[in-house]
């Protein structure tokens, strides 16, 4: 092997920062050393990993093509190093979660994990399903917890929890006391929904197949609390995870409505990159999630 893992690390940090000086600072080395290592790698194989534009370096077409392989190779080497070091060698964890999981379940998981591994630094990110999967694909996250189904050749998704969406409205709405809604009812009211790209919206659109073109979608919002606020002002109907609505139903702030002709059940998933070895920290995170919510999965 005529290249080194250090050269790969330098290549990847430059790809991230698009600047040799900034990359050198992150890697705690001189700018000339970082530049020399990159030049040596390119000269060895007579390739150009970057297109130079002044001080900015943008990945070339070839650089973009090999970046995922370099990420995977470097991560496997780090995972092997952690295995050699044993559990005491557990490294930092970058975990992501979609909005419902992030706002209503993630803190419990973090508390369970931190109680067992207080020395492990955990970076958490909350976004919609599309964005979390993009970050897992780009190796920015070690593991993701998502609400939507994803079919991608580079991702491994494992079912984690069962969930259910619930149609709801304010107690003052004329249909609040109806109990069960027909498709005609669904098409007669304004809707405040999650945005496209979210797992909740994906599940809603799937459940409402056949009537989507006839629905009056008044607002699309990124956060469950914003949707609940709009519904509380009697602006229309919402549809969110029962997880997000549990305390609101108990307090009588909203009324759940049954839609028996529509399947609003879904699964929550754990997602990881197929070329990224599951670290000891990520394994411990899954164990903490299973402990909190009484489920057992293996990745």
Name the helix and strand elements from N-terminus to C-terminus, one letter apiece.
Answer: HHHEEHEHHEHEEHEHEHEHEEH
Low-confidence stretches: none
Main sheet? 9 strands, mixed
Given the helix and strand composition, which structural class is it?
alpha/beta
N-to-C terminal Cα separation, in Å? 31 Å
Structure description:
The chain has three domains: 5-85, Arc Repressor Mutant, subunit A (Orthogonal Bundle), CATH 1.10.10; 91-153 and 274-292, Periplasmic binding protein-like II (D-Maltodextrin-Binding Protein, domain 2); 162-266, Periplasmic binding protein-like II (D-Maltodextrin-Binding Protein, domain 2). Helices cover 44% and strands 22% of the residues. The protein has helices at 5-17, 20-27, 31-45, 61-85, 99-104, 106-116, 129-137, 183-186, 199-207, 224-232, 242-251, 280-292; strands at 50-53, 56-59, 93-97, 122-126, 143-146, 155-169, 190-194, 216-221, 237-241, 255-257, 265-273. The mean pLDDT is 90.
């Amino acid at each position: 092997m005529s290249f080194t893992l250090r050269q790969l690390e330098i290549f990847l940090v430059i790809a991230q920062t698009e600047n040799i000086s900034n990359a050198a600072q992150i890697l705690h080395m001189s700018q000339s050393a970082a530049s020399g290592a990159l030049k040596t790698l390119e000269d060895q194989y007579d390739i150009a990993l970057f297109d130079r534009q002044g001080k900015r370096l943008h990945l070339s077409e070839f650089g973009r093509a090999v970046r995922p392989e370099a990420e995977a190779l470097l991560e496997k080497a780090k995972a092997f190093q952690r295995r050699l070091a044993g559990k005491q060698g557990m490294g930092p964890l970058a975990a992501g979660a979609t909005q419902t999981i992030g706002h209503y379940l993630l803190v419990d998981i973090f508390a369970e994990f931190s109680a067992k591994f207080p020395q492990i630094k955990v970076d958490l990110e909350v976004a919609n399903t599309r964005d979390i999967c993009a970050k897992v694909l780009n190796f920015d996250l070690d593991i993701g917890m998502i609400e939507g189904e994803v079919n991608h050749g580079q991702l491994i998704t494992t079912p984690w929890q069962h969930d259910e969406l619930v149609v709801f409205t304010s107690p003052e709405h004329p249909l609040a006391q109806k109990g069960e809604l027909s498709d005609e009812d669904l098409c007669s009211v304004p809707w405040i929904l999650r945005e496209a790209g979210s797992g909740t919206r994906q599940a809603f659109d799937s459940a409402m197949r056949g009537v989507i073109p006839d629905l009056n979608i008044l607002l699309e919002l990124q956060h469950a609390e914003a949707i609940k606020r709009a519904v509380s002002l009697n602006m229309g109907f919402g549809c969110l995870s029962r997880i997000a609505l549990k305390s609101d139903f108990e307090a009588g702030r909203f009324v759940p409505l049954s839609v028996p002709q529509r399947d609003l059940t879904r699964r929550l998933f754990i997602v990881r990159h197929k070329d990224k070895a599951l670290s000891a920290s990520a394994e411990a995170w899954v164990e903490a999630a299973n402990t909190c919510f009484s489920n057992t999965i293996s990745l």
